[in-house]
Amino acid sequence: MLLLKLAARDLLTLNARRRMVPHLAARWRHFRGADASLSERSAWAESLVSLATDLVAAGRGDVEMIVECAATLDEKERPGDPRLIDVVLVGQHPEERRLSVQLVELKRWSTVTRVERAAADMVHVPGMGRKKHPALQLREYYEAFTSARGPLHGLEFECGGFAYLHNATEESVRPLTDVDAPTGAYARVYTSDRREELLADLRSHFADEGGASAAEVLLRGMGLRNTPLLDAMIGSRGEDTVFTLRGRQKVVAEKILATAAKVLPDPERPALVPDERRVIFLVTGGAGTGKSAVGLQLKAELEAQGRTVKYASGSRAFNAALQQHVGYGDREFRDTFAYFSSFVTTPNPPLDVLICDEAHRIRRRSTSIYWPAEKQGTRPQVDELLDASRLTVFFLDEGQSLRPDDVGTVDLIEGAAERYGAHLVRYSLREQFRCGGSDAYIRWVRAMLGLTQEPPEQWTPDGLMHVEVADTPEELERIIRTEAHAGASARMVAGYCWPWTKPLGEEKRLEPDVRIGDWHRPWNADSESFCENGAPPSKIWSVHENGLDQIGCVYTAQGLEWDWCGVIMGEDMVRRDGRWEFRRGKACAGPEPGVKRVAVPGSFDPKVRVRSVDDDDFAQLVRHAYHVLMTRASRATVLYSTDEETRAYLKDLVGDVQLHGLRPTWENLPREARLPHLPRPRRSRRGRKNRNRSSDSGPDLRLF
After folding, report:
1. What is the pLDDT of residues 526-578, one digit of tens each?
2. Of 427, 432, 128, which Cα lies nearest the Cα of 282?
3. Residue pair 491/548 in contact by the 8 Å Cβ criterion
């Protein structure tokens, strides 16, 4: 948890634009569930600016200020309020060039008197009463921050701390600095008349550059900069334990594993009779809360125990990306991964555990136009999933339902559990780990799209996630290609607002269906095999190096992520008279057979635009699609709307974001953040059990 991460000079710029305090207040409300007090807001406006000003005056404007930072990784799991450090200053030591950290307690006190002559632990502050000596607060934070539960555990770093009373003089707060005051690396006290000493100490602790690199190390330690899921799976060869679950994720996984041990037969002691009660787990959480990480971790641990487990998904693109990118062979992939439609015929014997990811994509029936009549499902698909195993785990986000026949909801799972007489256990994941860990960005997107009751506000850079608006599709493509060629992962995606032509002719030529003025690009290939010029099939468009030449849609992007994502909004969602307007498109004949063009701009999604979907549902599905598209990036989203009025609205909401060093181009990123994406391994021809896990387990890549 943190409220803001900015270099000192950037914090002053943000404050000058009157956007710092509103941002901090919104983050506080999100994390604490209550509004920040007027006193808290005033403290931010006064004390943070004073400290940032001093850093700049000391020539240390690049030192990063982490505001209201949790002392440990598991503060939310502790009883009582989380321990929040006012500011963590992060940079490089000027001589040793290693990570340097200072914990800061900011106080606006101007006068302090001693409560008891015998001790300096407690002091009296006029108008506020008895208060603990700031050094004692810092000692608790210091011990927690540098402990095994701290974010930098296992790293070599210098850490100290100080209290800053910028409204006081040394004489007016004498009890804080007397000879019997607390001592330690965290116990320094600075006042307004000791400012020159503070500036000198800041110079002695921090170099004039390197703050961004140091902050990146801290963010990774906090779990806010994560190894992309597919890269983590490559590093483990898809089978070892690689996900470091945190907070609520860890609690959920441990509960499910403990229950599995009770209700499933023990492979090592088959004579023991297990608990026969039926248990269903339902885990809800928004995009980026780590549902897939928890699911894949459960799968790895249950398989290691000798359980029969399958990992099912309703997303063809996610499954295909997992298979192709991680390097599974066809047979081994089928042995352990499946689709929701794979269980029309119940396994005999049933699986021990079925893990259902993306459960919001459960359909009413398991059907396909390519299946013969006898293969079609005749029962509710959720019943087929429940019959397939003894214990079922559903991961679900109702906010990602994209089509009318996506019926996976909390009510559906609850109703099925009641029919089966099963014990339903519900958990929710709240902490957000996608989009650079920026809860602020996720909330901004949802408010902007009208998915919450919160009014949309101007985007405030928080040092975690970047967003900008392009003036033309050419500019958007230039940005995305530049980052991809520099070394970042990047893709262009768009709302489903143009016809989608199947590959043409024997050469499988892709028609440039996405047409904006003179800028024409093809959709990702509607094909099971490679097309002209090496265009990959749609199922691996997201991870194949040639995918940069095509435009993806929500169905090929859902569940995946890239460093940079360019999002094109079409005219299915435009801004008019202060509200969103939603439109269904119509096609007309194109220049050759099999090709169509836009006659009436709007949605061309064949399942969503039909008149059988009422207007309210249509609007919600379009909102959901753009929410998915706008939350695919881990560092930066570039927006472009084909509609001029909508583009102006987006520009007004995003505002001027060109702050010092905040645009996370590959060139601007610190060395520690330039993590190359792992190459896809050769697809295995051997079974998983034949692999030499001890000698080829890959690096220890931590995800969540």
Report:
1. 998 999 999 999 888 988 889 999 999 998 888 788 999 999 999 999 999 99
2. 427
3. yes
Domain assignment of residue 687, yes or no: no
pLDDT tens, residue by residue, 57-107? 999 999 999 998 889 987 777 777 788 999 999 999 999 888 999 999 999
Q: Which domain holds residue 245?
A: 229-429
What is the bridge-based pairing of β-strands 157-165 and 586-589? Answer: unpaired
523 and 581 in a single domain? The answer is yes
Q: What percent of the chain has pLDDT over 90?
A: 49
The stretch 495-514 carries a mean pLDDT of 96
pTM of the model: 0.75
Nearest Cα neighbor of 664 from 1, 2, 5 is 5
Q: In this predicted structure, what is the pLDDT of residue 699?
A: 31
Among 429, 458, 485, give the residue marking a domain's end.
Answer: 429
Angstrom distances, CA of residue 268 to CA of 199, 203, 307, 354: 65, 62, 11, 21
pLDDT the model gives residue 704: 24
Closest CA to 298 of 344, 252, 234, 331: 252
Residue 290 located in a structural domain: yes
Question: Quick one: three-class SS letters along 648-675?
Answer: HHHHHHHCCCCCCCCCCCCCCCCHHHCC
Separation of alpha carbons 612 and 408, rounded Å: 19
Half-sphere exposure of 96 (CA within 13 A, CB side): 10
Task: Determine phi and psi for 279, rounding to 5 degrees.
Answer: -125, 135
* 509 and 477 housed in the same domain: yes
Has residue 98 been placed in a domain?
yes
Distance separating alpha carbons of residues 212 and 369, to the nearest angstrom = 54
Tokens of 275: 């608990």
* 683 lies in some domain: no
High-pLDDT (> 70) share of the chain, %: 88
**For all residues of the chain together, what is the average pLDDT?**
85
- 143-152: average pLDDT: 92
**Are 141 and 240 members of one domain?**
no
CA distance 417 to 279: 8
At which of 382, 414, 429 does a domain end? 429
DSSP state of 239: T
Residues 460 and 395 in one domain: no
Which residue, 207, 21, 261, 222, is CA-closest to 96?
207
SS3 128: coil
pLDDT band at residue 154, thresholds of 50, 70 and 90?
confident
Q: What pLDDT score was predicted for residue 212?
A: 83
Q: At what angle do helices 291-304 and 247-263 cross, to 10 degrees?
A: 40
CA distance 44 to 594: 61
- Other CB atoms within 10 Å distance of the CB of residue 270: 9
C-alpha span between 260 and 256 (Å, rounded): 6
Pull the structure tokens for residue 700.
């220890």
Residue 116 phi, psi (nearest 5): -125, 135
- Judgement on whether residues 568 and 422 belong to the same structural domain of the protein: no
Is pLDDT above 80 for 642? yes
Co-location of 375 and 236 in the same domain: yes
Name the β-bridge partners of 116.
Answer: 119
**CATH label of the domain that carries residue 333:** 3.40.50.300
How many structural domains are present in the chain?
3
